[in-house]
Structures are given as C-alpha cells and as structure tokens.
Write a sequence for this structure.
C-alpha cells in the first residue's frame, strides 16, 4: 500500500503565494541539534523534505494546519498565513 | 480603511458568522474579515452540524437554502482491530423527519459561504482575501481594531471578536491566547470520496436524504491516541482520521499513510470501493478541553468557537459550540454597546452566558477526558487486538470446547495487560466522563 502525497495534493486547489509563508529560522539547528526531525513525518502535506545537508520547505502544497509551528521541537519554524486569498481553497471542505 | 465599525470579526466560520448575523440583524455596523478567497475556503470539519444551535440563529434555515448534504438518522460506533472489529449502531425514527434536523452533514466550503451570505443580507460586511495580522491597541492596551495585510489595511472598531479558529496565528502573535501545546490538539486529515447517491443509500442502508455517521477508534491509528470518522454526504463520503499531535511527533507516522491504511481496512474498503477521491485536507481539532480554554474576553475583545478551544472531544461537537458562543458574544456585545462599556467588565455577559449554558457544563463534565486517553494508550493498542482475539476465538467453530477457548482468552488477557491496568482504565475512564 503506497500513497504518494503528490497525487493527494493534486486534488486540491492552490493559489500559490510568491512569497513563502513558512521559513525555517535556522537550518543548522535542524541538522545539528534536532535528532528526531519529526516535521519530516507528521506534516500532512510532506512540506518538509530532507535534501543532503538541509531541510527544504515545499510551502506551495501546505494545507495550513499549523502543526509544524507548534510541533517543531525547537520551535524553529516561522509560520504565518499565506497572503489573503492565497494558499489552499477548499471546494468541498 | 477610514470607515469605523462597531464590531470587527476575525474569521468567517460558524462562530464569526453567527455573531455577524446576530449583530447585523440588530442594525449594528459589523465587518467580518476572512483570509480565504471566499467564506469556507479554509474551513473543514468532519462535516456534521447541529440543527438546534443553527436554528437559534436562523430558525427557518432549511427553507432558506441551507446546503444540507444528509440528515443523520443513524450513528455507528466501531472499535477496530487490525483485521476487523466491533460495530454498534443506533437509529431512531425520531431523527427522520424532525424539524429542525438534529444533526446533518455539510461541506463547509458550501455551508460557510451560504451562512455568510445570510449575514450579508442582514447587513454585515464580509471582506474576503484579507488576513488579520495584528490587533490595534490604544495606550491602555485596549483593543480598538485590527491590522490587515491590505494596503491601508487598519480597520477601527469598538470591539473585536476573534473567531479565527483553532490554528490562530493571530492569537499566538498577540498573546491573547497561548499557542496550543502539541498534546492539546489532534491533527486530522480528510479525504472526500465521491460515489453515486444511490450507491451510498444502498451501502449504508438509508433512503435518499438520510445519512449515517461512523465514529471509529482502535488499532487504525497505529497505537496513537486518535479517532477516525466516516460521514455520508449526498454523493460523497467524508473520511477523516486524526491523532494527538504529540503522538504524531513521537511515532513518525505520516498522516496520509495512516489515512490510506484506514481506507484499506476490511471494514472500510467495501464502503468506499469504486469511489473517486476529490479533495484532501488537514486541520487541527481542539482537544485540550476545559482546562485549555483561555480567558475569553478582555478590554475590547472576545474569543469564540475553536479559537477559544470550545470543543467537546468525546461527542465530537464543535460547530454547535462555535455557533452558540458566537451568538452569545454578539448578545454580550450588544449589551456592552448599550451600556457604553466595552471593557472586560462590560463584556462579562459573554462569560456568564457561556457558564449558564451546555457549553461550560459539557466541557467541565469531560475535563479529564483528554488526559485519560493520553494515559491509556492500551485503548488504541492492546485492547482492540484482545477484543478481536476474544470474539474471533468464540466465533470460530473448530472442535475446541468453549471452556477451553475461554481459558485461552483469559490467559492471553492476563499476558498482554495486567488486571491492575484494566482496573485503572475503568476507574479513570468512568471518572473522565461522569
């Protein structure tokens, strides 16, 4: 049973804000101090991905739940809402 | 914006719109600021709303085009192990034709939009695509309006209602409500699966317009403190699964993989077979209960709905509390405007209304429920498997006597979980809901 997050996000309607609404404050912290890196798992849109020596943020597919903001063990994620009218728009909800 | 309003409301969800409808209906100049493209575009719930609380605001909502998906006539509870599970259901004729309907499913993108239109018709101004980024305060720290992400985006108002939901970046920023702790929220994901209306009728054994809710716990959340639901819409099913965020952090489970596992469970698969996934979403559920509720009003502001953590986790009731708290907030605001006192004292009618209602009573009643679940993970690990084992043993006809089977079950129970633990579970469980 495999499920690809890309296939799930493909169902949603996004209007992507040019300006990212999520930023990792200090990537060194992620790589050197954060052993568990739980954001790589609990994010329901798999926004956080490990690439060689850093964690990259695919904010475009963010479902705006806010979990990373409070679930980062080092509170190392700066998170705001996308600009008004941007981000995900539910069609059914 | 140069114009000054009497009331500014942050968020066009059930709480904000209920307040806006009530206020505008009494001629109070009200603005609602919504960050989505349209009301509902950012909103989700499992999808059940309650007629009683909505009818207190719009008595004839069914005649006014409220986008009801299905009227719930049956509630099922499932306790699932990995391979199967127990099922209990309750259906009652009383739920069939009752007006207003007791509980009904909606798609929030459609419902919230309709609800906001009703408030608009009463005279409330609903402005979308606008994020409230801060609150304006005077020298005495009283709230006197909101700052938005639009150019010249300050909106002045005599009082501000924060109805911006559980994930309130604004509350976090301004400190009006502390950020929730990970164990105070559940992270839930939802799939909407499309199926023909008649097929849903057949699979759930209901007539057109009638629906079923299924609330599910057990092994499906991978041992985490969580719940899943299946709700019937007109021609789709809502499938949600969620678990406590602190459990997600520890267990390294991907929410969408857990959802996929749930959809493939032998009890679930036959219901959704042939269906087409239409939308995938994620949201928090406020699970902190009574003790996580922040101070709900202060000088120039009030907090309603999910933003105030008003959610009954045991009964999965939140939208009703959002609507009623929004209405209470509006009534208290009108009182305060009449008195000309918008201080915390002047707005205290809000708190006393909540305290005199089912909202505070229910949240108090279940205040230990969150801790109970977090302390008793065996509810999601050992117990569903033991339950499955016991029933499977007793129902398997294989020439072994029932007495021997009982012995084997008892032996396994004692091996997998201590009697002391079971006693503790029952004791804590009863105390958490009594």
């Amino acid at each position: 049973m495999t499920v690809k997050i890309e296939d799930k996000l493909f169902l949603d309607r996004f209007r992507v804000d040019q300006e990212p609404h999520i930023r990792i404050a200090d990537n060194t912290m992620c790589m050197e101090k954060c052993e568990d890196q739980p954001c790589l798992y609990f994010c329901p849109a798999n926004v956080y991905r490990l690439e060689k020596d850093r964690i990259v943020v695919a904010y475009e597919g963010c479902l705006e739940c806010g979990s990373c903001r409070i679930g980062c063990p080092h509170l190392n994620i700066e998170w705001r809402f996308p600009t008004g009218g941007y981000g995900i728009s539910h069609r059914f909800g | 914006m140069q114009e000054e309003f009497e009331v500014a409301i942050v968020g066009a969800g059930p709480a904000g719109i209920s307040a806006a409808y009530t206020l505008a209906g009494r001629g109070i100049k009200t603005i609602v600021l919504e960050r989505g493209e349209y009301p509902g575009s950012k909103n989700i719930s499992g999808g059940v709303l309650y007629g009683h609380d909505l009818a207190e605001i719009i008595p004839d909502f069914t005649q006014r085009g409220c986008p009801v998906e299905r009227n719930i006539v049956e509630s099922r509870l499932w306790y699932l192990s990995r391979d199967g599970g127990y099922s209990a259901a309750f259906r009652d004729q009383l739920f069939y034709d009752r007006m207003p309907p007791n509980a009904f499913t909606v798609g929030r993108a459609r419902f919230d939009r309709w609800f906001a239109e009703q408030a608009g018709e009463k005279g409330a101004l609903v402005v979308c695509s606008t994020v409230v980024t801060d609150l304006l305060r005077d020298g005495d720290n009283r709230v006197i309006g909101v700052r938005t992400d639009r150019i010249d985006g300050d909106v002045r108002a005599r009082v501000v209602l924060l109805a911006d939901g559980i994930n309130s970046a604004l509350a976090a920023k301004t400190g009006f409500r502390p950020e929730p702790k990970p164990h105070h929220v559940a992270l839930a994901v939802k799939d909407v699966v499309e199926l023909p209306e008649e097929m849903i009728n057949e699979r759930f054994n209901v007539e057109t317009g009638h629906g079923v809710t299924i609330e599910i716990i057990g092994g499906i959340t991978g041992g985490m403190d969580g719940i899943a639901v299946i709700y019937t819409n007109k021609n789709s099913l809502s499938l949600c699964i969620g678990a406590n965020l602190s459990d997600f952090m520890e267990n390294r489970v991907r929410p969408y993989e857990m959802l996929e596992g749930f959809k493939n469970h032998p009890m679930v698969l036959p219901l959704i077979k042939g269906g087409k996934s239409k939308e995938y979403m994620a949201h928090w559920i406020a699970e902190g209960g009574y003790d996580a509720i922040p101070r709900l009003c202060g000088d120039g502001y009030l907090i309603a709905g999910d933003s105030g953590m008003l959610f009954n986790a045991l009964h999965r009731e939140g939208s009703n509390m959002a609507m009623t708290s929004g209405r209470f907030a509006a009534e208290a605001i009108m009182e305060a405007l009449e008195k000309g006192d918008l201080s915390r004292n002047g707005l205290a009618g809000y708190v006393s209304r909540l305290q005199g209602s089912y909202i505070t009573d229910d949240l108090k009643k279940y205040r230990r429920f969150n801790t109970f679940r977090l302390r008793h993970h065996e509810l999601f690990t050992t117990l569903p498997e033991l339950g499955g084992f016991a029933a499977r043993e007793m129902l398997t006809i294989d020439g072994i006597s029932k007495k021997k089977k009982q012995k084997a079950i008892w032996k396994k129970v004692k091996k997998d979980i201590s009697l002391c633990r079971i006693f503790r579970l029952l004791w804590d469980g009863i105390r958490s809901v009594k």
About this structure: Chain B has a mean pLDDT of 96. Chain B has three domains: 4-68+106-179+291-355, 183-286, 370-433.
